[in-house]
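Q&A FORM
Asked by: J.P.
Topic: structure of Na+/H+ antiporter NhaC-like C-terminal domain-containing protein

PROVIDED:
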Amino acid sequence: MEGNYGLWALVPAIIAIVMCFKTKMVIPSLFAGIFASGVIMYKGNVFAATSFSLETVINQLCDSGNAKLIMFTMFMGVGISFIWKMGGSKALSIWARNKIKSRKAVGIGAWLLGMCISVNDCLIAAIDGNVFRDIAKEQRISSEKFSYILDSTAAPSASLFISDWIAFQIGMISQGLVAAGIIASPMKAYISSIPYNMYAIFTLVFVGMIVITGLDYGPMLKAENRAIKTGKFCSDEAQPMLDISSELGEPKDVEPKLATFIIPFIAMIVTTVFGFIYTGRAGEGFMGTLENADAVTALLWGSFAMGMSGVVLALGYKIMNFKETMDTFMDGLKLMVLTAAILLMAWSLGEVTKQMGLADFLVGALGNSVPAWILPITIFVLGMIVSFATGTSWGTMAIITPIAIPLVYQVTGDASYAMVVPGMVLSGAIFGDHCSPISDTTVMASIFAGADHIDHVRTQIPYGLTVASVVFLMLLLIGIFRLKPYIFIPLGILILFLIVYTMSKINGKRLKEAKNGVE
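REPLIED BY: S.T.
REPLY: Here is the structure written out as tokens.
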């Protein structure tokens, strides 16, 4: 039933996204989108549509990569469960009270740690969230703000620094260069394109501005006001993706040991890095290793090591007996059941939009007969739409990059200009993935922040749109004047700061009232 369904291909994604915001019930909303695609593809036959929807979900569950990511999530739950029950989180809070004296320090710490552990975007959300979640609560940072920091340092950091994203981007660039007939090194093109991944660059800078200055605006300011005035991490109506205290109960009545927090994370990081090296050992050199590495398998090994280290510590320190240890293990698995279901539904919706030819329709609609000066904006907007509707930045890159490079080369005849296009594609793809409620990385940020998923998306979108609007302006200037990175990057950062300062001034009285006596 695969094909190009034209405008109808947009319907499932629209239904899912609108229902997510209206009902705040993610799983039924995602399934409604999947079912709608079946109704369209089978011309109103609801029985065939139901069968198609169930088969789609089952096929995604049976996919090896997806199954490994679900197991990664489940074992992360096990690790979190042991850290909580053994008093690791409590030990960190005690340590943090003596080291971290302000809300600003928490924000800066989470921001910097996210950029330092750039190996994988999901790993960033998991580690950063677990390290700072309880401290954020202590310092009255809202779950919305904390989940924004996690989400905004995940994909942007992974796309710019050392990570599994590099090899994937190079592979897509290679396809585009071959399609365009450009004889050049994919690695050279990748390096050339980095400054044009402006959404990632500006987002990381923007997060730094927000956490250092404390200047919030829009719905995020309301969330921060609530947290500062009332101490409520989540709103009264929120349904947190991860509520450890209610799910796991109180920690064991033992002396908290910081080792029970640190060792599981060290085990995960070391094992994950080993997994990257081992699975990519057939490649030559650093880049060859990254290109050949199986990132999902490495993450699975890392999360398993985290969970097993919890078992060893619980028994080794005699914090728990064997039965309590196994109960904690099972509680950790249960903690992530809802998360796994949401991920499965998000993947399924992405698959049906692919089958309906959503990306091909958008590329065809936006990519034909466009003048050279508007090409950068066209590519960026296309990446935004496809990624937001499908919830995947990697899928967006895979679809658009091999098309965009030859398109730009055909229109402009400039090979060097065509080689920076992947940065524009990735910029749009990260925005859509960042702000889409059906994105797995957005879900991960909500999970490990302990935030309500829709509250996270709702408060994050205005900040994402702020950065995207500056990127849009810079790409317009690039298209018209061919600005160089040493001009458009400082200019964009300056404009971002002016926007943040102006918006915060508009809300100045409320912000001052909320923060009075807190810092």
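FOLLOW-UP: The chain is about 80% helix and 0% strand.
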